[in-house]
Amino acid sequence: AREPFGALEKVADGVWALVSTPLGGDRTTLSNGGIIAGRNGVLAIEGFNQVQGAEWLASQAMQLTGKRPTHVVLTHYHADHANGLAGYLSGGHPVTRATERTRDLVTTKNLPADAARSAALGGVELLPTNSATTIDLGGRSVHLIPRGGHTDSDVTLELDDPAVVFCGDLVWNGMFPNYVDAQPSRLSAAVRAIRRSSPDTIYVPGHGAIARATDFDRYVSMIDEVEHAARRANASGMSAADAGASFTLPATLGDWVLFSKAFYPRAFEAWYRELKGA
Fold first, then answer.
1. If DSSP codes are grouped into helix, strand and coil, which group holds residue 170?
2. CB count, 10 Å around CB of 92?
3. DSSP, residue by residue, 70-109
4. CA distance 197 to 24
């Protein structure tokens, strides 16, 4: 299925990734997401930017599997991943899972405030932050792994067979990441922990095209380059704003689209906060 806001791509039997195309101007979804189906249940990943995004993914799940989503998981609280959550309630009542921190921030921080979204979060099942949770969809187990770094409460969704990882915004592909809430060292460690040894693993990033091992490794090299540049600039006494304004990625890393011109300065500000012990 293809829409102005993105396309639904089959990545394995019973597994689909929604790859959003936010630069086109349609803000229905903005983030990536997906569908994972088993014999007994269907899991939808992310609530998206608008209610219509969740409604659309639920309708696609029905067409592809014969079931609406029975489960929904939010990878973190940012509006483009969570604000449309109430769209899943228009034709069913799936079990929604998120960490307590994600639930609280969606409720208190995301704007505009929305009573339907708050109601959708009212019965959320909270995920532990110190251990993995496994959802059995019937012949298919999905592991929800608590992590952090993009925000202070991120979750990845991981399958062993087929080898597919929905990374949330811990990983971006071909688009420079948003460091607005980032804890950069923790982000770097989490990204490395996600990387699997199998070259056949499919990674669904929070933004950008579906990734393979070479794409993943290019992302790691890119965030390492940001770290090195931030450390050099901080040691030289340059401000984060000036360092971000003058920063460019090496051509050897290929093209990285900037969703916002503010993203380079945000990355340096995040590193400066950490380097100064804030």
1. strand
2. 13
3. SEEE-S---HHHHTTGGGGGGS--PEEEEEHHHHHHHHHT
4. 35
Number of neighbours of residue 230 by Cβ within 10 angstroms: 25
Which two three-digit tokens encode residue 127? Answer: 């995920």
pLDDT band per the 50, 70, 90 thresholds, residue 91: confident
What pTM was computed for the model? 0.97
Question: Any bridge partners for residue 96, and if so which?
Answer: 72
Put the strands of the sheet holding 133-136 in their side by side order.
133-136, 141-147, 154-159, 164-173, 202-208
From 243, 248, 250, select the one nearest 265 (Cα to Cα). 243
33-53 pLDDT tens trace: 999 999 999 999 999 999 999
- Is 146 within 8 Å of 99 (Cβ atoms)? yes
| Cβ-based neighbours of 186, under 8 Å, separated by 6 or more | 148, 149
Per-residue pLDDT tens digits for 97-156: 999 999 999 999 999 999 999 989 988 999 999 999 999 999 999 999 999 999 999 999
Q: What is the Cα–Cα distance from 132 to 144, expressed in whole angstroms? A: 6
Residue 199: partners with Cβ closer than 8 Å, 6 or more residues away: 212, 213
CA distance linking residue 29 with residue 20, whole number of Å:
7
pLDDT band for position 86 (cuts 50, 70, 90): very high
Residue the block writes with tokens 């704003």: 241
Q: Which residues contact 150 (CB under 8 A, 6 or more apart)?
A: 76, 168, 169, 170, 177, 178, 181, 182, 187, 190, 206
> Among 269, 272, 247, which Cα is nearest to 258's?
247
